[in-house]
Amino acid sequence: MAYSFTSISRSCFSRAMHNVVHILIFLMVTNAASLALASATPNTYAAQKYASSTNEQKTSLVVGSEQDYPPFATGMTDTTAGGFTVDLWKAVAAEAGLNYSIRVLPFHQVLHEFKGNNIDVLINLAISDERRQFADFSVPHVTVHGAIFTRKGESGIRTEEDLAGKSIIVLKADLAHDYALSKNWGKQLVLVNTSAEGMRLLASGKHDAMLLAKLAGMLTLHETKLTNITVLKTRAGFSQKFAFAVPKGKSELLGKINEGLALTKSNGTYDALYEKWFGIYEAKEVGLRDTLKYVIPVVVLFSGFAGYAFYRRNVERKAAERKYRDLYDHAPDMFLSFEAKSAAIIDCNQTLLNTTGYSREEIIGRSMNELYHQDCAEQVQAAFKTFMSCKEVHGVELELLCKDGRKVEVSMNATAVCDGHGVALHSRTALRDISERKRSEEIIINSNKLLHTIINNAPMRIFWKDINLRYLGCNQLFAEDAGVGCADELIGKDDYQVAWKEQAELYRVDDLRVIESGIPKLSYEEPQTTPEGSQIWLLTSKVPLYNEANQVIGVLGTYEDITGRKLAEEEKLILQQQLQQSQKLESLGVLSGGIAHDFNNILAIIIGYCGLIKMDNKIAEKYIPEIEKAAERAAELCRQMLAYAGRTQLNMIPINMVPLMDEIVTMLKSTLPHNAAIKADLSAKTPFICGDPNQLKQIAMNLINNSSESIGKEQGEIHVSLTTASVSAGQAVNDYNGTSIPAGEYVCLEVADTGCGMDPETIRRIFEPFYTTKFAGRGLGMSAVLGIITAHKGALQLYSKPGRGTNVKIFFPILKEGSIEEGLLLKGPAAPWRGCGTILLVEDDEQILKITSTLLEEMGFSVIESANGREAIEQYRNNPANISLVITDMGMPVMDGYELFRELKKINPKLKIIVSSGFGDAEITSRIPPKEITGLISKPYNYDQLREALKSVVDGAGTEIMGM
Questions:
Q1: What b/e sequence results for 925-951 when a residue is b if at least 16 CB atoms lie within 10 Å of its CB, and e otherwise?
Q2: Residue 347: how many CA atoms within 13 Å on its side-chain side?
Q3: Of 8, 53, 181, 942, which has the highest C-beta tally within 10 A?
Q4: Which segments of 279-330 does DSSP mark as H helices, in order?
Q5: For residue 878, with 0-12 CB atoms within 10 Å meaning exposed, 13-18 middle and 19 or more buried, which class applies?
Q6: Which residues, 6+ apart, have CB-to-CB distance to 243 below 8 Å?
């Protein structure tokens, strides 16, 4: 809020009033003579009076008001005219008895019409020396100060000096326009017709600032509801005293206007209108000095009414004096006046006395310099010199010295009252208590210092950029990383101008993504080049920066150097890899030892029985079955190793687990020791699963045998059950290793026993190959079981404690295709079968080649033998019409089975090829599409297995395949 009061001494006021009284007495005498003259010659006097009135005033005045300049003028047409000056004019015209019509135009047009004598009264014109050339002014009805309006967040304009070179909006022909031209800013100006138009232009971001009376600007913002514009605390260098204006020389009309204005002030109309339109935005600024200056001419002009006017106006002046003295004394700011020559205080208001603790008698007559603390004596003297030379001084910050020794920080503004020769007589001084503001500023400064300290001592790098990705600030660590000495050197630069210009584009892409989306990007790793040219690694986070209007104005980022951590992680990874390699070698040693142990036992059996047969051929029939059993044990061991390695091809079909488990339990009841009783709960109706029956049987037999061994010679029970289970998304159901079991529906096989249980170390190692608590070399056991479960996409849970038994629960996913007939699991006895046609047999092992060739001939086939892939290609090309089927090994010299397969398919895409390998079916199907393979037979195989494989191919292919 701005204030402007006239401060004069009691003696000056008394002398002025003494002179007014003498003038009024003289006018009363003159008026009496005039009345006598009028009585003697009434017709002549009336004629002269009428002629004078006709020259001075039209019957109906044309009153000009500008468009949309709230709160002074509102409305865009004659019929919608409103605002403070319109309402005030109506009250003044009513008091003065003036007839009028209002004309509303843009300000520059209404001013042009006034200069052209087309308008009799301008109701709101700012007083200036240039305008006094063509207009006479009434007592000012309000005074407002100029202000600078900018967009919020604009940091480039803080004082009037910052407007140089900026795009400035002004009202056309407004005092702000004249002031800007006087500052040589003409080329920068953008002219508008209304304040609302100017504010909207500024809010749109097209220009930098707007010069306008503060009050008009504030109320325009209120009316337009523009929230991104603010007014600077620093005043502009112009102020506007608004008054009613008439063309030069129309003194009688001006006198009536002044009289009407005085009457509206005395009867309270002015105050009511002022409060209505201005409220708290501006203080009333019509001083006693202005009133006196215009009252005296009014008294002179209206001498005919001197007797009555003297009494009436004397009462009004006294009321006005009391009123303005009351305003003066109780204003929130301190006011005083001192003589220019002696600097002696001649007047002050009560606010100054209350603040300093002095009485009026103690203040009046003292030197102005004694009011201030000695610490600011130099500033006081400098301000006094400026005052005497420039006749004004503004914004000087000083310290008042109170009676009790307290110091009060104030901001001083003073203007001089001069005589007719421009010599300063006394001051009009306003002191504003800025103690609270200074305390707030100190708090802000200390807070900024603390924030600066925190930022610079934070263990991470901090930076912030504007919306154009130029740096606005950073902490010292960031500045050092960028290769500059201090943070200020980085302001205004972008990423292409610092040490990490190689990564500039990468950084800017992230910045723009955060700014455009408004979504933070947190805790991600990125590289950075140091000023020395080396590369480091950062852990970075970026968030958008918002202004008061919740608009994104930039990006704030932090990062920390994690290069040391990355190196440590890499070293840790290397150590982990070395440890894993060591563990793999250890596991490989255990695996090799276990395999060697079991294979040596098997080979010892085979070699032993072969030796016995050599000694006596007659016992061959007795021992050959034992040799076959040993060989089958070896084959089973190989299958377990392939299952453990995940390289076996499962024969997956729809399975009902109930009859499968019932078959296993029934078989094992007759083979397990009688002290281990099996109790099965297989009554639940469970859905089908997709699985390999033989592998599932092996799981059940392995678990039940383990339970039997854990019971030992004591009495115990083994419980086998089948149930269903459902795992929901987000449900914490984990397997033995702590891994979450995927959501879905499952059939659960549970095997629990009352045996000895296991300690944590045994549980940790139970899935290691060949690990056992009994003795070495018992096979892959639980490791093979785990491999089969994994191949079925299942999961395993294990619970055990020493002395409290073991519980194993296996989850098999339910088949979603629906119910499948149980008969799919049952196969009848093999019927007698013989084949015919020619088979190309490819095998690099001579013994296997001879054995397989003999077996095929026993089945009724003709056989062409090949030792490698290249030889097989030649033989097929020589006999393409005769060869109806190919059986090939995969691991061969010269040309392996994979290349042979591809070459044969090129020659004859319809050729049927059965693949035989000891590497496991999964290895083969990973390299050859399963749909292209006619059949698979894993080594080792016997006569029955080979016959079943050929039978399925031949019967499935029909006569066309076998050439029948």
A1: beebeeeebbbbbbeebeeeebbebbb
A2: 20
A3: 8
A4: 288-301, 306-329
A5: exposed
A6: 125, 127, 137, 138, 139, 140, 141
Asked if 661 and 722 touch (Cβ cutoff 8 Å), the reply is yes
Q: What are residue 102's DSSP bridge partners?
A: 63
Query: 782 by DSSP, 3-state: which?
Result: helix
Tokens 């077996």, located at residue? 855
Would you call 887 helix, strand, or coil by DSSP?
strand
104-118 per-position pLDDT tens digit? 999 889 999 999 999
What's the pLDDT score for residue 229?
Answer: 94
The predicted model gives 16-43 an average pLDDT of 39
How confident is the model over 937-957, as a mean pLDDT?
Answer: 81
Residue 557 reports pLDDT greater than 80:
yes
Which band of pLDDT confidence, cut at 50, 70 and 90, is reported for residue 827?
A: very low
Residue with tokens 């959501």: 743
Long-range contacts of 21-27 (CB under 8 A, 24+ apart): 23/296, 23/299, 23/300, 24/299, 24/306, 24/310, 27/299, 27/300, 27/303, 27/306
What's the maximum distance between 2 C-alpha atoms anywhere in the chain?
183
Alpha-carbon gap, residue 173 to 193, rounded angstroms = 9
Helix (H), strand (E) at residue 505: helix 504-517
When mean pLDDT is compared across 272-276, 278-282, 405-409, 821-825, the lowest value belongs to: 821-825
CA 952 to chain centre: 65
> Which neighbouring-strand residues pair with 718?
678, 753
Using CA atoms, how far apart are residues 786 and 800, in angstroms rounded to an integer?
Answer: 17
CA distance 685 to 723: 8
Find the mean pLDDT for residues 774-801. Answer: 77
CB-CB contact of 160 with 148 (8 Å): yes
Beta strands in 39-99, from DSSP E residues, in sequence order: 61-66
Q: Are 711 and 755 in contact (CB under 8 A)?
A: yes
The answer to whether 800 and 755 have CB atoms below 8 angstroms apart is no
In this structure, what token pair is assigned to residue 401?
């010295």
> What is the phi/psi pair of residue 79, to 5°?
-80, -20
Is 626 exposed, middle or buried (CB count within 10 Å of its CB: 0-12, 13-18, 19+)? middle
- Across the range 120-132, mean pLDDT stands at 90
Average pLDDT, the chain: 82
The SS3 call for residue 637 is helix
Among 270, 245, 224, 89, CA closest to 175: 245
pLDDT top residue among 617 and 911:
911
DSSP 490: G
Taken in order 893, 896, 900, 902, is the CA torsion positive or negative? negative
Look at residues 670, 678, 687 and name the one whose alpha carbon lies nearest to residue 721: 678
DSSP state, residue 740: B
Helix intervals (H) in 815-845: none
Give me the torsion for CA of 594, 595, 601, 607, rounded to 10°: -160
Is the CB of residue 202 less than 8 Å from the CB of residue 151? yes
As a whole number of Å, the end-to-end CA separation of the chain is 114
Pinpoint the alpha helices (H) of 559-656: 563-615, 620-645
Coil/strand/helix, residue 625: helix
Beta-carbon contacts of 274 under 8 Å, excluding residues fewer than 6 positions away, are 84, 142, 284
The model carries a pTM of 0.34
CA triple 354-355-361, angle to 5 deg: 55
12: tokens are 């000056």
